[in-house]
């Protein structure tokens, strides 16, 4: 059934009095055996499924509106509408309905609408009172007419009757002629009555009356009547605004006269609803539901007509991207698209889907890329709004475009990089545009809205692209403002609030805070991508430079970034923090803050409290061994004492474990259980953490699969036999009952020397100067310690790790081996 005359959209009215689109199909009227009568059937054009099956009930009131709409109520609180593509199709179905109900097809409503609560009373009324008798339309009767219109508003039945009377007698046009007479005579009282009358007629909520009132012939006089509100000392000048101030701009001439008329009408009716009419009270909120529907269907029609006119849209795009187009014209074109996208928000999901797909097909994204890079602030702002509509509609569509573009373009002109640059270069002191763009970027890099299909994973593809092509642009301001040369000026322990590291400029501080917020989001939602990036760029050290900022909100952003990293409880991150001595700037900030009880103080303490409560052993040991002396004076919270207690308890536990380890190993010499091997290996790593100050040895990740161990089992057994004879010789020498002598102490100065060393194998050193001698001392110290412990639980993992290092860039070689 390809006949476009019968093509319709089915709408239902929801609880919020908004029309929901149920789909597009073709309508027919046929006899349905099950329903025992002629019925309206709508079959979906996509798959032929039944969208609507509705018996034409002889007593149902059907209304024809705007030549292409048929509206009726199927049951209480269930309103339906058919919106026809063509007037001829609407007329055809309307005739069928009228035929079943025995009505003349020239009527707009097939039945008098009855409110069920008043049905009985209505039946008792004498036939003579079927219609309301309207007073003659004269100047001296205006007060009587106004009283009549206001009196019927409380009764649904009387409202219907008055509407029919007004419609049948062409009364509205007569009233508007009286308005012109009153204005000419400056009859203020009459004009006040006309305001009440016209407002009351709008509240009758009848589409047929709206069509008369909002026609080109009448609408300006209707607006004129509504200027003379009795509550106002002086009448408003709405007509002057609509005719002189409000200008209809055609970016490209619209040749379709029907479309032009529709746009004018919709603008004016929206103006009446939003500006002229007072906000309806709770009791009046349903009075204007038909007016809302009138505007809604008009907007749907406008978007559909523009969307179908591909020649018009293609011309708009061509001019938008043409270098020869002058700035004023381009500004108007971008503003047109912004309005167009705003209109599309009234569409139902399926229509909106088709709308944005049309824009994508015509090349909206390449066009936006050009426009967003322009100097004109207004154009950029409008382009950002359009981009936000697209991202909100389909982040995947934007991501797909950007990844395809990356194969042909340089990084500098990629759409996402253009967006990031706009964010960085926002001239607004409050960074309003930057905040909006940051929100859009967050949506684009959010794995929650990325699709995973059988043949490809959008998440891994897009994040690889983003970290390779875009991340360096995002972090550039951060790295510039915390650069190496600036860091060297402030390389002393303790902070200097006036140093050159931290931008004093409030706007730059705000921008860095936005970038940190986005990076913090990445830490939470991207796993290895952000981890590799942080370690390769030594990013956390650079971020923590901002702990010195005079802007507390920026110091808190830096702290929040570190807190998210620690919150992951990832040993890779923990080793990176301890080796780099990255708690130092945080502890300095706490000490500099002094006795002030503020947000910074609470946030720092919460960070340490989290480490204590979660019992993160490697961090606890590092803090206690290096910073406890500076922190022990803080007694208004028990956090630091608690950390010391945890540290000592763990130390005792490890000492006890050291005593029992050799016998455990001997008694289970030939155990081939992979899980047990994993436990032994974990024990060896934990022991090394304690012996070597937790900084030197990389513990095995908890998540390491068990399958890794059986492959190395034979090698393990051979080496174990060779080592076993050394066990007895190499037991640690006790210095006191239950304790061991630790010759290695990890100091802050050693940390400063080694912190620049790469944690990830492929990371270039951040600062190599001055670290070699300190590293040598550290390594010597470690070796000395390890010499006294070798063979204790000495699995052959040194050789294994060397092999693994070549394949796993994330594994850190142990300095002591």
UniProtKB/TrEMBL annotation:
Gene3D superfamilies: Leucine-rich Repeat Variant, Pleckstrin-homology domain (PH domain)/Phosphotyrosine-binding domain (PTB). Residues 720-732 have a biased composition (Basic and acidic residues). GO terms for biological process: DNA damage response. One of its GO terms (cellular component) is protein phosphatase 4 complex. One of its GO terms (molecular function) is protein phosphatase activator activity. Residues 5-101 form the PP4R3 EVH1-like domain. Residues 144-649 form the Serine/threonine-protein phosphatase 4 regulatory subunit 3-like central domain. It holds the Pfam family EVH1_PP4R3. Belongs to the SMEK family. This is Protein phosphatase 4 regulatory subunit 3B. It comes from Macaca nemestrina (Pig-tailed macaque).
